Amino acid sequence: MPEFDVVILGGGSGGYACALRSAQLGLSVALIEADKVGGTCLHRGCIPTKALLHSAEIADGAREGARFGVKSSFDGIDMAGVNSYKDGVVSRLHKGLQGLVKSRSITYVEGHGTLTSKNTIEVNGEKYTGKNIVLATGSFAKTLPGLEIDGVQVITSDHGTRLDYVPKSVIVLGGGVIGCEFASVWKSFGSDVTIIEGLPRLIALEDESSSKQLERAFRKRGIKFELGVFFKSLTKNKKGVTVTLEDGKEFTADLLMVSVGRGPVSANLGYEAAGVTMDRGYVLVDDKCRTNVPGIWAVGDLIPTLQLAHVGFAEGMLVAEEIAGLNPRAINYDGIPRVTYSDPEVASVGLTTAEAKKRGHDIIELSYDLAGNGKAQILNTSGSIKLIAEKNGPILGVHMVGARVGELLAEAELIFNWEARADDVASLIHAHPTLSEAMGEAHMALAGKPLHAHG
Ligand SMILES: Cc1cc2nc3c(=O)[nH]c(=O)nc-3n(C[C@H](O)[C@H](O)[C@H](O)COP(=O)(O)OP(=O)(O)OC[C@H]3O[C@@H](n4cnc5c(N)ncnc54)[C@H](O)[C@@H]3O)c2cc1C
């Protein structure tokens, strides 16, 4: 085998982005993937879950037609139909991605690879040597000690994206992003849903105000949750599962989905033997994704940065550009957009109030209620846009709750990353009636010239 400029282990968001950008920059690339190019995001993460959420939105639309004067009824979910729609989306994107990899003359290797030296990955006895090695083996769904995933009654999101029936009742263990998205889908599909979360609030990484609004909205939708209490034990029988919590409460359902976080895929892959510094299975890197071993890099869920596909893309491209000598700017992780695609959606960029205070910022805040926004009224959604700004300074954080607010993040991201001030944004004209108008209104209010804002 010839020596490559870059040998990449893992063809998920981080790995394939690195491969595509490296090839674009004229580097010779080998991309090694044990399963399917596209990884978690394409095959069992972002894309299938968002397809399920879209089916859920259609189901709610059918139920709520009368509210908008449309005669419609919800007659049930045909999971075969849902899965065929979802798999169609995944399959088209997978084919497109395979085509991209091929068209960039990347050497694509199918098989399970192991790092056998500082510059070599071995796959099925074959050695692939690179001037640079990029580790991108991603993450797996974790469980708790003593809580065995059987894939039938006790599942993870991997199984959740492939379920061929709608459970009558489901317990979701873990109220983070993945847990809340599945809870939202199943509620819309007609299941009785209970979320159990050990922390005191849902989506605990978000601003506290967003958690509170999501909890209120979920309560209104009939999604039940127990917060601030930990799982103790599980019993199963033919009828279903019973979960006992540490406070003694018991919950019974058809199905338990465990969504207690994702851990790095790094065991027995030769990383430690090659001298790569690790922490709890994560590979540690500097701000350019370099490990401590010269020539070995790591990206995506394998490193302890935000576990998001677009973070993997950004890190993969960063490494390619650094290897090619372009000296790219390091990633500002505060400026990464984050979305929970439940109904309602939760979206944010920048610092939370707690984080801004912790870092010593002297802040002012403003919350613009979507009740004052025409499009939000048309869509019959409620929620808000909360701004956090440095006193007489730039916007430090944007936190949104409501239908389709994920689509507003593009502007919020520019505002944060370009360090705009409230009056910079207030002078921009937003189209009426759009949800984006609420972004303009929030900044107008913060700049002291509210138009459609009460109080
Ligand atoms: C249910 C769910 C929903 C999600 N929704 C979103 C979302 O809406 N938006 C978002 O941004 N993120 C979302 N994510 C997170 C996103 O999927 C991950 O952040 C992203 O996939 C990480 O990319 P990665 O390349 O680091 O790892 P992965 O995508 O996990 O890819 C790693 C690849 O490496 C391969 N591999 C592992 N070990 C080896 C080996 N030894 N040899 C060869 N190949 C190997 C694996 O087969 C895999 O294909 C979601 C995740 C889940 C689970």
Jot down its keywords.
about 450 residues, alpha/beta, FAD/NAD(P)-binding domain, Enolase-like, domain 1, 3 domains, 7-stranded mixed β-sheet, 5-stranded parallel β-sheet, 24 strands, about 25% strand, globular, binds flavin-adenine dinucleotide
Describe this structure in words.
It is a single chain. The protein is an alpha/beta fold and 455 residues long. It folds into three domains: 3-141 and 263-333, FAD/NAD(P)-binding domain; 154-260, FAD/NAD(P)-binding domain (3-Layer(bba) Sandwich), CATH 3.50.50; 344-446, Enolase-like, domain 1. It is 32% helix and 25% strand. It has 13 helices and 24 strands. Strands 1, 2, 3, 4, 5, 6 and 19 form a seven-stranded mixed sheet that branches. Strands 8-15-9-10-11 form a five-stranded parallel sheet. Strands 20-21-24-23-22 form a five-stranded antiparallel sheet, with helices on both faces. Helix 1 runs parallel beside helix 8 (309-323), helix 3 packs antiparallel against helix 4 (79-103) and helix 3 (46-63) runs parallel beside helix 6. The longest helix is centred in the N-terminal third of the chain and has 25 residues, at 79-103. The N and C termini lie far apart (70 Å). It binds flavin-adenine dinucleotide (FAD). Residues 9-15, 32-35, 39-41, 45-46, 49-50, 112-113, 136-139, 157, 178, 265, 269, 300-302, 307-310, 312, 341 line the site of flavin-adenine dinucleotide.
